[in-house]
Amino acid sequence: MVHNAAWRRSFLCVLTLYLGFASPPCKARIYTNHWAVRIAGGPGVADRIADKYGYRNMGQIGDLKDHYHFFHSRTIKRSTLSSRGHHSFISMEPKVEWIEQQVVKRRIKRDYKPVPPLSQTSPAHSNVAQNNIFYNDAKWSSMWYIHCNDDVHNCQSDMNIMGAWKRGYTGKDVVVTILDDGIERNHPDLFQNYDPQASYDVNSNDLDPMPRYDATNENKHGTRCAGEVAAAANNSHCIVGIAYNARIGGVRMLDGDVTDMVEAKSLNLNPQHIDIYSASWGPDDDGKTVDGPASLARQAFENGIRM
């Protein structure tokens, strides 16, 4: 009876997927060959334990003390089953306080929604000259969200950006990093403000956040976000950033499996240097998905607040 019941549940799950419906019981967790481990005693102890059980210690997880990124090359890269190999005995080591195999999290980039263009005779456009601010950037006159202020009616944004600029708030001495699919550090609108200390490639584990280019050109979201924040002003290129004097960096972390550890590494990059971490992405924004930071990402937030 038990066997028959289990068979019927499996059959219904397969049938439901075949019909094109994503039933919650059929959504399997995807386990990776990466682990997060908390080990007391320092990097030397972590290296020794990693080597003993066939792992490679990829280093500390951001700024989280005693938390290490372990990688196991002989474990399946993506599996619906958690690992049960010989290396799982690592949890019995006295210095290992906690270990967790990393699971893939679904993350969606947040993009803009097109809005009807403002008329060229609208108050927003005629108000540009009245503000006595003009830049030679090609898209300057089309940046309606900057030209809006309290004197403009029927405006789609009322952030009073020019008012802030006139008071001297242009992002100077502020460091921002964009957690996304990478940024083009050599982009003509970004290279002047680019900050390598606010940049990292978590997906490839190196210092260069340049996007991976392919035929779909999908990895452009981070560069767009960086431009909105800190594109240089008055350089005859493209747009003007909201904080055009800010230092801007990027973390490439969405172009691969996003796990709790990937989010924590990104949120904990060089926290004594970076002022603002911008993340224009998250779980499915479908009105029924509820998800948030897991244990490591929560620790990264707490670490940023306390330290």
TrEMBL record:
Q: Does the keyword Protease apply?
A: yes
For this UniProt entry, which residues form the secretion signal? 1-28
Q: Where is the Peptidase S8/S53 domain?
A: 171-301
- Is RNA-binding given among the entry's keywords? no
Q: Which domain of life is it from?
A: Eukaryota
Q: What are the protein's UniProt keywords?
A: Hydrolase, Protease, Serine protease, Signal
Q: Where is the Peptidase S8 pro-domain domain?
A: 34-110
Family membership? Belongs to the peptidase S8 family.
Which protein, by its recorded name, is this? Answer: Proprotein convertase subtilisin/kexin type 5
Native source species: Xenoophorus captivus
Q: What is the lineage of its organism?
A: Eukaryota, Metazoa, Chordata, Craniata, Vertebrata
Q: Which gene encodes it?
A: PCSK5_2
